[in-house]
Amino acid sequence: MDNSLQDFAQGLKQHLEGLAAAKDEEYNVKTFVDAMAGYLEEAGELGTTEICDFKRTGIQLNGYAINHLGVGKVIDLIVCLHTKIVPPISIHKNEWDAVIKRAIGFIRKSIAGLHLAYEQDFDIYDIAKRIYDDKDQISQVRVFFFTDGITKTIQLEDIEVDGIPVTFQVWDIERIYRMRSSGRKKEPILIDLEGKYGNPLPCLPMPVPNDYYDSYMLIVPGVLLSQIYHDFGERLIERNVRSFLQIRGVNREIKKTITKEPFMFLAYNNGISATAEHIEFLSSTDGVKIIISIKDLQIVNGGQTTASIYHAAQKDRNVDISQVFVQMKLTVIKDPEKMEEMVPTISFCANSQNKIQSADFFSNSPFHRKLEHLSRTEWAPAKEGSHRQSKWFYERARGQYLDMKNKQITPAKKRLFEDDHPKNQLFTKTDLAKFIISWEQHPHIVSRGNQKNFDYFSKTIQDIDIEQVDKNYYYKTIAKAIIFNTINGMVKTKNRANIVTYSMAWISYKMQEQIDLEDIWRNQTIPSMLLDTIKLVINAAHNHITNSPNGEIYSEWSKREECWTSFRDMSIEEFLRL
User: Fold this and answer.
1) Residue 188's pLDDT is what?
2) pTM greater than 0.90
3) 190-195 contacts: CB < 8 A, separation 24 or more?
């Protein structure tokens, strides 16, 4: 086995064990799935994922995400085989096949009404009910198989379950290692127009070349665009734009034109903007450039157009897209190292007419980059009884912490990195969203899950002047993190996530003027006198959330604004009587 792969697997396991211990949690399959899903979210393979751990006879689920691109819904389901063994062992067919069959079983039973057999507070209730309710609108289910072992011979064909197309992706420790060690955040897409699709595309190049990029105009047949989207799905859509589109509705006019006047599509539609790392041409005697392959195609504007063409044809077999054609502007970035920097900028500019604000471009937005910079440069004061300062680590992109640690050459330098950046001071974008939205007194939104909360958070930072994201803003943000983490460490019950956000929101609402966030930053802990109050609030939050006025399950009750407003208006005297 490659020593580098073994080192990566060992480092990842130790890192995840350390993170779990820092949060006073057990290292288990949920920890591993969360890390793997994070890598794939960063790569644009997955949307924001909800993690669970559900396994019964014939069914299994370890995570899910729901995407709303185009006309149909795409459901991503995650199943995992977690061995905890390093060096990684080979996973044989009898082992992985059983897991895949349990994933298929989950789909089949969800379509048949699996949710009816479980209470609403079960972590698979929401997704099982969603599959049941939306089975006629689901255009595809994608099953992701995760493992910390090594798979060599898995060949999984697409299938249909009760009429719903199901595809499979296998992500073992070796595939994640290859993606991370290549220096890329994602696996590139290679579009073989000539060999696979038999449809090379003539193009018109830009008149004056430059050293930074080349640009070409193309007319793309709707049938070809649909075929490519079928093969690569949302990976085609630049990840920041994909996140934007998930919040918005479907463009009905696109669907109408495809259905009623497909021959007018080229005239009516604004077309597609896309980027690529490299393209290859077919030799032409008349001087016309003909593209035969495109490497790392990313659609930065027109993702909804692309998905709508595909879904319209999939959902209605009577729709003829042979007359649909789309214009495309294809920009090829000459320096691969500039891709991460230039593509989001092109994406933002291309979408400016759609009112996409810079905050919609999540991890690459100025807000997140500024916060990352502050976390790398600002030393937190030493805690009482210690003379050692440390830093909080904002993981703007998943895997940054481990990547930076692994760049330290010697074991001593690795230990020094961990001392400077303790794992209990690492926080991600979804963590940040919980800290801030809880403090801004919207615990019912936090209770709706990571995806909905992060979408809401991204909207709230649209109006923030980047100049305001300074040291003081950062210090207060970390103080909010300290309050949140302190409450989180004090809650041990099953509905922990709901209790924590409600407790923090109440403290913010009732005591914000008495709480000195800068003092919390200076001391890196909350005042001892606040701890007694927090204990009362935690107990009250637990009682309030688990005793809804109409007997509603706490996981649903806590998502309602009424739940928050009724708790918000309770006094400390009422808490004392509980």
Assistant:
1) 73
2) no
3) 190/293, 190/294, 190/295, 190/296, 191/228, 191/232, 191/293, 191/294, 191/295, 191/297, 192/292, 192/293, 193/224, 193/291, 193/292, 193/293, 193/294, 194/282, 194/292, 194/293, 195/292, 195/293
